[in-house]
Specification:
The complex is a heterodimer of chains A (318) and B (502). Chain A is built from 12 helices and 11 strands. Chain A has helices at residues 3-13, 20-31, 46-57, 72-76, 111-123, 158-161, 175-184, 200-211, 217-231, 242-258, 266-277, 292-302, and strands at residues 36-40, 61-65, 78-82, 87-91, 100-104, 125-128, 131-134, 140-146, 166-168, 236-238, 282-283. Chain A is globular, with a radius of gyration of 21 Å. The chains are: A alpha/beta (318), B mainly alpha (502).
């Protein structure tokens, strides 16, 4: 495990107990410079997690609570006539000065607001009245979707889910973790104790290092075979997109970096495969109760991993 | 879907042709199979669908389509009154007449008109469920009629008589063809058969390459042609097996349990149909194979040079015998004399190509006898050579390559003993390693797996001591696994997998 990342995790764990795996995955997305979709019920600590993360990593944090009347201009800013100068002046929006944006309940936003956000996520810039304003670096969106109380909401269309690097779910804490959480909040607020152990530039440097992690052809071949196999799978209507393959590569590199290696292995790809790809595939209608996760596990089982390639049936059958 | 239908139609035509040319067990069974084949999906639906599978009839959709009607039609608009909902305002008409108009609630006038409009396209398109239902009804009626046909004795005998009539017709066609296209008596068939064989091979290659399911049809058709020309009737179970193969080929992949069950039901139905429809078909089979045996014996006589005139009477009796089987109690028909004539023609045209064939077969047999005893040794030697080459990589100057080769050898040993963890990355194998190894083996294995990953996936320079580490793991694995292998596994390790060179 990378030492600085270990410290980040320790800091975040001060406020969120027993969720180490999810924190690791979020850090993976951070390293891979991708956006995160949290699919969860209310009150499991999504906001707490995002705040703690921004504090520990030293990022500027903004939160947007989406409602049907949030407009695109609230996000990317707008130009207003200034009578003193007789000119239009740009007023930055919520996305403009933030590194980490928590988009709460993105499914409550109107579809044009959703698409404005997704466009900003994709291009990392905001265009208002023909002028392009670059967003901060790094720019990472943690969007949440509530699956409860869905009346009057618009879930993200399948095509737009593809833009998120990972889809995660925090889930309820167990008894022990919840006890610990309650104990920790007697008296003082634990969020105050979260220290900044990483800087923005440090994170940028790490992202650079992640990009330079070695991925040999054997691993790229594996990623390609996995995604192509998903496209012809009998239970999948739509398989993993080329963008999915790209994201898979990036996340696997981040995983290798997190484990303190400068090369990607097939096991890294397997470790991140389900988180990166489960929201990118569309199941057919009649699937005998199988979920996307089951299909992806099956793919991992059947597609020869690069360690075993050519060796599944004995050593001399290369 | 269209391709499958086409396949089916071709198959059906072939089966029909066959049936009319040669009426025996095999062709009957093939025809039965072909006729019953389309039942397969419906059998599945009828017996194995989960409850009411058909979608409920869709309610006619009420479409509010005002633009279709003329704007002047003022019967369904009225003046705006305060409190009327704004979204029911008829803006177009309002703008035209310069007063605010509102659409009347469409409870009185609209429904008939619209439901009529909605119904018209529905009839054209025909919802899937209705179409399916109709097909189902037709099919069940068909099955019912078929059942009647075979259960009512009068109908059954009538059907048999009808079959015989058809058979007669085909005989006549046959006789006509023999007259119309005479063949020289001493014509060699060698070239033609070679060409046909090549064509068949090419056909099979093409179907294999294209990955199509046509292959089953070609097999079926080939078998059918074979039995038509040589009069060899397959047993009914063979036909059923053929049908099963065909059906299996045509089913969608992956094969679900429900599909498999329906396949089973269909096979049972075919078997039942064959046994029910044609009792006593074995006699016809007997007659057909007798004919083949006859011609074979005549061939052998010709080769050995002891041509014996077949007495007229014998042929005649056989002829009438077959006929009485196929035609019930019908009398001998003078028009069927061509069978006798062709038999005599064959007697004359036989010897030349048969002797060539005999020589070729003898040569082939001689070559095979020479080569065969050495084949296993050749095979073993080739494997050993490969194994030694693989071992050469252990001492390769490129240490990374060597480490990969050695570690893969370790896993090949585990695989050969059936102890491997299959398609898992080696890093995760430690949890699946066999019990009873040396203490600490798991850790050493994990360490070496990490070394393997580094060697395989990074550009790092590997060190010599790391190679030694993996080599010692290989030694340890070999010794431990050899100690627990029984003689069969040892034999396989030594000669089959060639992992253990000794």
């Amino acid at each position: 495990m990378h030492r600085e990342l270990e410290r980040v995790i320790t800091e975040i764990e001060k406020v969120i107990a027993g969720k180490r795996e999810v924190i690791e995955k979020i850090l993976l997305a951070l390293l891979a410079d991708g956006h995160i979709l949290l699919d969860d019920k209310p009150g499991v600590g999504k906001t707490t997690l995002a705040v703690a993360l921004s504090r520990a990593v030293g990022l500027d944090y903004r939160r947007v609570q989406f409602t049907p009347d949030v407009l695109p201009s609230d996000l990317v800013g707008f130009s207003m006539y200034d009578p003193k100068t007789g000119d239009f002046r740009y007023h930055p929006g919520a996305l403009s000065n933030a590194n980490l944006v928590l988009g709460d309940e993105i499914n409550r936003a109107s579809s044009k607001t959703q698409s404005a956000l997704l466009e900003a996520m994709e291009e990392r810039q905001a265009t208002v009245d023909g002028v392009t304003y670059p967003l901060q670096k790094p720019f990472i969106v943690i969007a949440t979707q509530n699956s409860v109380g869905t009346a009057g909401t618009q879930f993200l269309p399948f095509s737009q889910m593809d833009r998120f690097l990972v889809r995660l779910s925090l889930g309820y804490p167990g008894h022990e973790a919840q006890m610990e959480m309650l104990r920790g909040r007697q008296g003082k607020e634990p969020m105050e104790a979260v220290e900044s152990v990483l800087t923005r530039d440090g994170l940028l440097a790490m992202q650079q290092e992640v990009r330079s992690v070695t991925a040999k052809d054997a691993v790229l071949d594996y990623i390609s075979r996995l995604t192509i196999a998903s496209r012809s799978h009998a239970l999948l209507e739509v398989g993993i997109s080329p963008r999915g393959a790209l994201f898979l590569d990036r996340t696997a590199k981040a995983k290798a970096f997190m484990d303190g290696r400068d090369y990607v292995t097939g096991a890294d790809v397997q470790a991140v495969f389900k988180d990166v790809c489960a929201h990118r595939v569309l199941m057919k209608e009649n699937t005998d109760g199988k979920t996307a996760e089951d299909v992806l596990s099956e793919l991992l089982k059947t597609v020869e991993n690069p360690d075993r390639q050519g060796f599944l049936n004995g050593i001399f059958k290369k | 879907m269209r391709k499958r239908t086409l396949c089916y139609i071709i198959g059906l035509m072939l089966a029909l042709c066959l049936y009319f040319f040669e009426n025996n067990t095999g062709t009957r069974a093939v025809l039965c199979c072909m006729l019953l084949f389309p039942l397969l999906p419906f059998l599945r639906k009828m017996f194995l669908s989960p409850g009411p599978a058909e979608a409920p009839m869709q309610q006619p959709v009420t479409v509010r389509n005002f633009s279709c009607r003329e704007a002047e039609d003022s019967s369904d608009v009225r003046a705006y009154q305060q409190g009327d909902p704004v979204n029911r305002m008829h803006w177009k008409l309002s703008a035209k007449r310069n007063e605010l108009l509102i659409r009347k609630p469409d409870s009185e006038t609209v429904p008939e008109e619209i439901s009529a409009k909605a119904a018209a396209p529905q009839g054209e398109i025909g919802t899937e469920s209705i179409r399916k239902k109709r097909i189902l009804i037709c099919l069940s009626a068909m099955v019912l009629l078929l059942g009647c046909l075979f259960l009512i004795p009068a109908a059954r005998y009538g059907a048999q008589a009808l079959c015989n009539r058809l058979f007669d017709a085909s005989e006549q066609v046959n006789a006509y063809l023999y007259d119309r296209f005479p063949v020289p008596a001493d014509q060699s068939v060698l070239l033609a058969s070679v060409l046909l064989l090549l064509m068949l091979l090419l056909l099979i290659t093409i179907t294999l390459l294209s990955g199509s399911r046509l292959l089953a049809f070609f097999i079926a058709a080939g078998c059918a042609v074979f039995q038509m020309y040589f009069g060899l009737a397959f047993r009914s179970w063979l036909c059923i097996a053929l049908f099963a193969l065909l059906a299996l080929w045509m089913l969608s992949r992956p094969l679900s349990r429900r599909n498999a069950l329906s396949l089973l039901a269909a096979i049972l139905a075919v078997a039942l149909a064959i046994t029910l429809i044609y009792p006593g078909v074995d006699a016809a089979t007997e007659a057909a194979s007798e004919r083949v045996r006859d011609s074979l014996s005549r061939m052998s006589q010709q080769i050995t040079g002891t041509v014996r005139e077949v007495p007229e009477g014998e042929n005649e009796t056989r002829h009438t015998h077959t006929q009485s089987l196929t035609e019930g109690e019908g009398e001998a028909d003078p028009e069927k004399e061509y069978r006798l004539e062709t038999v005599e023609e064959e007697q004359i045209s036989m010897p030349e190509w048969v002797s060539y064939l005999k020589i070729a077969l003898l040569l082939l047999a001689a070559v095979l006898l020479l080569v065969l005893p050495f084949l296993p040794f050749l095979w073993l030697n080739a494997r050993r050579k490969k194994a030694q080459e693989a071992r050469k990589a252990f001492a390769s100057a490129n240490v990374s390559e060597a480490i990969c080769a050695i570690f893969r050898h370790v896993t090949a040993w585990l695989d050969a003993m059936g102890l491997g963890a299959g398609n898992l990355p080696y890093r995760n194998w430690a949890g699946y390693l066999p019990e009873g190894m040396q203490p600490g083996y798991d850790e050493r294995f994990s360490q070496c797996a990490a070394l393997f990953e580094e060697a395989a996936y990074s550009d790092h320079e590997m060190r010599e001591d790391q190679r030694q580490e993996v080599l010692s793991l290989l030694d340890e694995t070999e010794q431990a696994l050899l100690a627990r292998a029984d003689w069969k596994q040892k034999l396989r390790l030594r000669y089959g997998d060639c992992l253990w060179i000794g």
